[in-house]
């Protein structure tokens, strides 16, 4: 798990794991956004708490970090969490895939953590080929 949120240290630690498990030739980072509808009125503290729960769940096998912020190109009040996940497991080198089962598992963790307070839905977009150099 990455404890420093310095961008260079996150990138370097992700790369070290990827190099160790020969994972440099595939997708280098997995990005998940957890968003909230405006009517849900999520306070920053709750968003941070949810982000922590997500990273603790994913961090059992994968390095990850997060950011919570407000605003998007469409809505300046849109509260959301960005999760950056190393798709190569630090534990065994297996890969994380953003598939229906993995998103369903994360949704279950978030439902349990928030006692069903939010209507978690999943939506996947085609990923862009970002590289973390």
Q: How is this structure best described in words?
A:
- The protein is of the alpha+beta class and 133 residues long.
- The protein has a single domain (7-113), classed as Alpha-Beta Plaits (2-Layer Sandwich), CATH 3.30.70.
- It is 32% helix and 15% strand.
- It has helices spanning 7-20, 44-58, 100-113; strands at residues 30-35, 64-70, 79-85.
- The protein has a three-stranded antiparallel sheet, with helices on one face.
- Strand 2 and strand 3 form a beta hairpin.
- Pfam families: Relaxase (PF03432).
- Residues 6-110 form the MobA/VirD2-like nuclease domain.
- This is MobA/VirD2-like nuclease domain-containing protein.
In short:
The protein is an alpha+beta fold and 133 residues long. The protein is built from three helices and three strands, in the order αβαββα.
Trace the largest sheet across and list its strands.
Answer: 1-3-2
Radius of gyration in whole Å, from Cα?
15 Å
- Helix percentage range: 25-40%
Please tally the β strands and state the result: 3
Largest sheet: 3 strands, antiparallel
> How many domains is the backbone divided into?
1
* Average of pLDDT: 85
List the helices and strands and how they pair.
Layout: H1 7-20, E1 30-35, H2 44-58, E2 64-70, E3 79-85, H3 100-113
Antiparallel strand pairs: 1-3, 2-3
Helix pairs in contact: 2-3
What attributes characterize this protein structure?
133 residues; Alpha-Beta Plaits; 3-stranded antiparallel sheet; 3 strands; globular; disordered C terminus
């Amino acid at each position: 798990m990455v404890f420093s949120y310095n961008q260079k240290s996150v990138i370097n630690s992700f790369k070290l794991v990827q190099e160790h498990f020969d994972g440099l030739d595939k997708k280098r980072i997995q990005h998940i956004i957890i968003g909230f509808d405006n009517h849900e009125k999520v306070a920053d503290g709750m968003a941070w708490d949810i982000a922590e729960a997500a990273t603790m769940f994913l961090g059992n096998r994968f390095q990850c970090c997060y950011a919570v912020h407000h605003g998007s190109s469409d809505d300046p009040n849109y509260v959301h969490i960005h999760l950056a996940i190393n798709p190569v497991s630090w534990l065994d080198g297996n890969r994380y895939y953003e598939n229906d089962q993995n998103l369903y598992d994360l949704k279950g963790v978030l439902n349990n953590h928030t006692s069903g307070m939010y209507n978690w839905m999943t939506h996947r977009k085609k990923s862009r080929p970002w590289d973390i150099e």
